[in-house]
Design brief:
Elements lengths: L1 H24 L2 E7 L18 H9 L1 E3 L2 E2 L5 H10 L20 H7 L3 E6 L10 H4 L3 E3 L32 H4 L6 H14 L6 E6 L11 H12 L9 E4 L2 E4 L5 H23 L6 E7 L6 E2 L22 H4 L3 E4 L7 E3 L4 E2 L3 H10 L12 H4 L9 E6 L12 E6 L2 E6 L4 E6 L15 H17 L8 E3 L2 E3 L1 H26 L1
Parallel strand pairs: 1-6, 1-9, 2-12, 3-13, 4-5, 4-6
Antiparallel strand pairs: 2-11, 7-8, 8-10, 9-11, 14-15, 15-16, 16-17, 18-19
Helix pairs in contact: 7-9, 8-9, 13-14
C-alpha cells in the first residue's frame, strides 16, 4: 500500500513539475502603453530635448518599427482597437463585454496557464467592459477615468463622479500610494509586484501610463534640469507655431515640464527592465512598448497648452496627418528576435495582440482586422505594400483644431478625405514625411482610385456618418458613394481603352 501511495505521489509530482517546467519555457509578455507619446518624443528618434536612454536601449536591442501607426488619433478608439484587434469605426467605448471568447486575446492567455494583469489607464468601460470583466485576472488603477486630476499624490483629490465627462476617479491608487508619490512611479511599483507574484506561471501584463497625457506636470528637479538645458538651445529660423486647420501646430520641443514628464516615464521603463533582470525574468520576457497615438502638438481656438512637437511630421493628436497617428513601437525579445530597425512594414496598433497570440500561443485569431506580424519579426516578410484605413468623425475643432476626416494608405501613398468640405489630399509619405506636397491634382486617377477603396471600406464597415459626400445638398451614404466612384472609374477605363484602340 505504501508503495502504491509513493508511486501515486511521484506521478502527481512528475505531472505537476513537468507542467511548471513547461510554463517556465513559455515567454512572459509585458506590454507598455504610454499615453499621448509621439514618435519624436524620444532621443533615438531625433529629440534634442527629451533624454530617454532606457527606451533608446530597448529599441536598439529589439525591433524598432519606423512605420507604426495608431488605429485612431485619440485615446478611447485607439485603445479599443488595440484590445480587440479591430478597426475602431464606432469611435466609442465599444462593448468589450460582448467580445466572444474565441476573439478575446486575454482569455486565450488565461486558458494557456498565464497569470494576467492590467495596470493604469483603461478608459474603456466598467463592469463587463472593465479589465477584469474583459478577462484580466488582476487590475489596478484602471476604470473609466481617462486622466488624473494631478500626477502627484493624492491624484483624485478634486475629481468628482460626473465631472469632465468622467464616470469615476482612478481606482485603487488613493489607498495604495504614499504621500508625495508620483503616479507613474506608483504604477511601475505595482506592475513589478505583479510580475514577481507567482514565478511558477508565465505572465501577460499591460502597464498603461497616464503620462504623458495632461495635466502636464513633472517633479521639480526634472523641470529645473530641463529649463537649464532648453535655455541653451537654438531652434533655428522655424516659427514656434504655424497655422493648421482651425488652429495651430507647435513646431518646437521646448516645454521643460513636458520634458520632465517624458524623462520620468523613461526612468520607470528602466525600473521595469531592472526588476525583470533582478528576478531572472528578463531573458524570457517579450517587451512591447508603444503609444495610443501621436503627441499633443495642435490646438484649436481655445489656446490650450500644446506641450510637444511632432515635427517634421505634420500636426498631432486628433489629426490623421502623420503627426497624429505615427507612434513608437518596439518589440524586445533578444532570446529569439534579432535586433533591427524595420523601416518598411506598415503596422497598426490593432496588430499587436494578434501577433502576440500567434507568436506565443501559436494560435491565429480569425474574423478580426488585425494581422499577426510574426513573420516580419523573424525577417521572412515585409508589409510595405499594405493597405490600411482610418476614420475620425469625432473631431474637436476647438480643442485640437481637426475636422472630420477619413484616410487610406496604400503602400507609400496616403489619401485624406475631409468629409465636410469633400476635399481630398494625396501624399507620398515615404518621400514627403511632412505632407507638404499635395499630389491630388497632379495624380487625379490615383486619388480617385484610392477614394473609391476608402469609401468601399466605409460601406463594408457600416461607418455611421450624418454627412459624407454632399451633392446638390443631398447626403450620400458611403455605400452609394463607393458605387458612384466605381462607375466613374469604369467610364475612365472605357475612355482610356477607346483612345488606345484609336492609336492602334
Amino acid at each position: 500500500m505504501k508503495k502504491l501511495v509513493t508511486y501515486f505521489v511521484l506521478a502527481i509530482c512528475t505531472v505537476s513539475c513537468s507542467s511548471v517546467a513547461q510554463n517556465k519555457k513559455q515567454p512572459n509578455v509585458l506590454f507598455v502603453i504610454v499615453d499621448d507619446w509621439g514618435f519624436k518624443d524620444m532621443s533615438l528618434h531625433g529629440s534634442q530635448v527629451y533624454q530617454t536612454p532606457n527606451v533608446d536601449n530597448l529599441a536598439k536591442d529589439g525591433v524598432d518599427f519606423q512605420n507604426a501607426y495608431s488605429s485612431y488619433p485619440r485615446c478611447v478608439p485607439s485603445r479599443y482597437g488595440i484590445m480587440t484587434g479591430t478597426y475602431p469605426v464606432n469611435e466609442d467605448h465599444g462593448n468589450l463585454g460582448a467580445v466572444k471568447d474565441d476573439k478575446n486575446f486575454i482569455k486565450k492567455f488565461n486558458n494557456a496557464g498565464y497569470n494576467s494583469f492590467y495596470v493604469g489607464k483603461w478608459h474603456l468601460g466598467s463592469e463587463e467592459s472593465s479589465p477584469k470583466g474583459y478577462g484580466f485576472k488582476e487590475s489596478f488603477a484602471a476604470g473609466d477615468a481617462g486622466g488624473t486630476e494631478t500626477h502627484f499624490y493624492p491624484f483624485n483629490l478634486k475629481r468628482v463622479v460626473g465631472t469632465k465627462g468622467e464616470k469615476a476617479p482612478i481606482e485603487d491608487v488613493q489607498e495604495y500610494a504614499k504621500e508625495g508619490e508620483f503616479l507613474s512611479d506608483v504604477l511601475t511599483r505595482r506592475t513589478i509586484e505583479y510580475m514577481k507574484n507567482d514565478k511558477s506561471k508565465p505572465f501577460i501584463g499591460v502597464l498603461a501610463f497616464y503620462a504623458v497625457h495632461t495635466p502636464i506636470e513633472a517633479k521639480p528637479e526634472d523641470v529645473e534640469r530641463n529649463k537649464a538645458e532648453i535655455a541653451k538651445m537654438n531652434f533655428g529660423p522655424t516659427e514656434e507655431y504655424i497655422t493648421e486647420g482651425n488652429g495651430q501646430t507647435h513646431m518646437w520641443q521646448n516645454n521643460p515640464t513636458y520634458a520632465g514628464l517624458v524623462e520620468n516615464t523613461d526612468e520607470n521603463i528602466g525600473k521595469l527592465i531592472k526588476a525583470l533582470k533582478e528576478n531572472g525574468l528578463y531573458e524570457n520576457t517579450i517587451i512591447v512598448l508603444t503609444s495610443d497615438h501621436g503627441g499633443l502638438s495642435t490646438r484649436g481656438k481655445n489656446n490650450r497648452i500644446i506641450p510637444t512637437s511632432n515635427a517634421p511630421f505634420r500636426a498631432g493628436k486628433g489629426w490623421i496627418y502623420e503627426g497624429g497617428i505615427k507612434v513608437p513601437l518596439m518589440i524586445h525579445y533578444p532570446k529569439e528576435i534579432k535586433a533591427k530597425v524595420e523601416t518598411e512594414s506598415i503596422i497598426l496598433g490593432m496588430d499587436i495582440f494578434p501577433t502576440l497570440t500567434d507568436y506565443v500561443l501559436k494560435e491565429e485569431v480569425k474574423g478580426i482586422d488585425g494581422k499577426s506580424f510574426k513573420n516580419i519579426l523573424n525577417g521572412s516578410e515585409k508589409w510595405n505594400e499594405r493597405t490600411v484605413y482610418w476614420n475620425s468623425y469625432k473631431a474637436r475643432p476647438t480643442q485640437t483644431g481637426d475636422s472630420k476626416t477619413s484616410a487610406i494608405r496604400v503602400g507609400d501613398y496616403k489619401l485624406l478625405h475631409f468629409v465636410e468640405s469633400d476635399k481630398t489630399e494625396l501624399y507620398n509619405v515615404k518621400e514627403d514625411i511632412a505632407e507638404k506636397n499635395d499630389l491630388a491634382t497632379k495624380m487625379p486617377e490615383k486619388s480617385a482610385e484610392m477614394l473609391t477603396l476608402l469609401n468601399q471600406w466605409k460601406a463594408d464597415k457600416k461607418v455611421e456618418m450624418k454627412a459624407n459626400h454632399k451633392s446638390g445638398g443631398e447626403e450620400i451614404s458611403p455605400k452609394k458613394q463607393a458605387k458612384k466612384d466605381a462607375k466613374k472609374e469604369a467610364k475612365k477605363a472605357e475612355r482610356k481603352a477607346a483612345r488606345k484602340a484609336e492609336k492602334q
